[in-house]
């Protein structure tokens, strides 16, 4: 401790600072009482037909709230909100309309030992702000405590008195415009869905067909060149990495990096301003809506990856940007030592979803994006954290109960990332009906099979047929499983067959970040190589993984660029690579050795679209469906015999999967029985060819070859006919798909 003054400051919890001169300007606007609902800033017509904006902020334990309006030159006008209804501070300001920038200063006790962290020196973003102007750069002034206090173990207890307003973004008043009469939502049924996970900027930034000034933006994704790729590929939905307004972490800014993925939300109603080509004074809202309309017009749904489990304010040493300064104890889970945050997310804090005001914030946000922004569903990051009651994950938690009965939210697509980092957080297969889940057990089983690491094929059998061991309860269906081999988090598909170890040095964290459990095989050489045999094997492995995914029962998810051979150079955690490493390279299909990959992906998706036997709405029965003994699902050994229990437990690298199109449960929209072709898929992961005996009658008299991943050019594969009962050579490490002829 350098002085008596500093010692006194620690005891009082306030850092000494010079007096701050209050801004001067025109007379303050008048504030009328207004209404406590809806929360946020809403343009309204007040008494006597006067236009203005109603402001409402929940701040449960606060002693006073000031609304701060900012002129274009940055001049601040502070208006006390004196009306308080059910812990909501509110007021109507006549004359304030769209485009007005604003924030809040919230007064209350500074007592970090009990979780109270009010600090009116910090301008706070409205949690309900529908647009945000400016960027979070995180200088010392935006921290509620003295960030650089000499004794860091008590730094969070010393209040910083410096004004943060010049350094933080402001909320923007946005005019209501929720007329979607001209929009037609695709409403693709779950069994028919194919999800394409993409990053708004990463997908469009290098696309040569998108005008340069639109690249990296919502308008760029709405451009016909971007939509053409999606339509031609055959996907039915885009799942956008976070587009809620987010902030960059301090440790990244110090290293000259930025948060690229966006899993650091701070505004749950605002489209991230950095992806706007038209402006950030509210224009980003209209641009986002136009993007949604353009995708809908092409038959493509929009699913948002949302991060309601934590915010960008991090832990006790994080910045004070919004909720922490509004009511820290009301919004965040705190430990028994209330200075500290309960962290089930690995990001410093966890929203306290059991609290009514937090649950309201989340559900209001979700409904807003559906009803006013037009989106079709959500993928919930670390969803288990939202399902925790006081401590444990609870599938009867308030969050899940509210979603289940909400007339808006229960009708949209709901996808859980069914885990968090806390004790008991792994919940794959446990979410209730209405929910689908990212199925990481599918990912692991398929990766392990193709790298030769599965001891037997029991687990693979479940994964290929819809994971009934996980989802056949409570009325759930095979489409409860979102099947994926890769996601944004981890290796790309090309890197999965090129690297066995992560190479994250560019992230500046000593290669310590990112998972070590990659379940990858580099085909004998780590990294890129000029060896033609190794490269040919890698391309075949990519085809094997893609084909397995798109023939499996469940909802497939592809990652943008995997269909073209995208690489991140072995980086399996490119969250901070807002550069060519993190962007899709659109020149890849022009490379001779990669040209066939995109064509194969389109071919497989078209096949899936044409054949309902690949998009089942119910789990397989597995029992004889008629007098001939034919089953809706049958498994075969390489000898052409049905697998016995002993076969499932025996080591093998070859598996035959028969899908009967005669025995599809359910009827079409006109009540007719659904029937289809039948198929036999043979997956062979061994390094040597195998002679596979094709099952004869009643399974098939003959088979027509449809796909053979051993071939670089699939245009030569179809049409060859092979008789049932004959031996068929399956090349080493390949998938063969045959259609039952006749």
Can you describe what's shown?
With 742 residues, the chain is α/β, with parallel strands linked by helices. The chain has 17 helices and 29 strands. It has an eight-stranded parallel barrel. It has a six-stranded antiparallel beta sheet with strand order 22-23-24-29-26-27, covered by helices on one side. Strand 8 (110-111) and strand 9 form a beta hairpin. It is elongated and about 90 Å long. The termini are far apart.
Summary, kept brief:
The protein is an alpha/beta fold. It has 17 helices and 29 strands.
Q: How would the blueprint of this fold be written?
A:
Elements: H1 4-12, E1 40-45, E2 51-58, E3 64-70, E4 76-81, E5 83-85, E6 88-94, E7 101-107, E8 110-111, E9 116-117, E10 132-133, E11 170-172, E12 195-198, H2 200-204, H3 218-222, H4 224-233, E13 237-240, E14 244-246, H5 250-254, E15 265-271, H6 283-297, E16 301-306, H7 323-331, H8 356-371, E17 377-380, H9 383-386, H10 398-405, E18 413-416, E19 435-439, H11 440-450, H12 458-464, H13 468-471, E20 481-483, H14 493-496, H15 532-551, E21 555-559, H16 595-610, E22 633-636, H17 645-649, E23 654-659, E24 679-684, E25 690-693, E26 702-708, E27 721-723, E28 727-730, E29 734-740
Helix pairs in contact: 11-12, 15-16
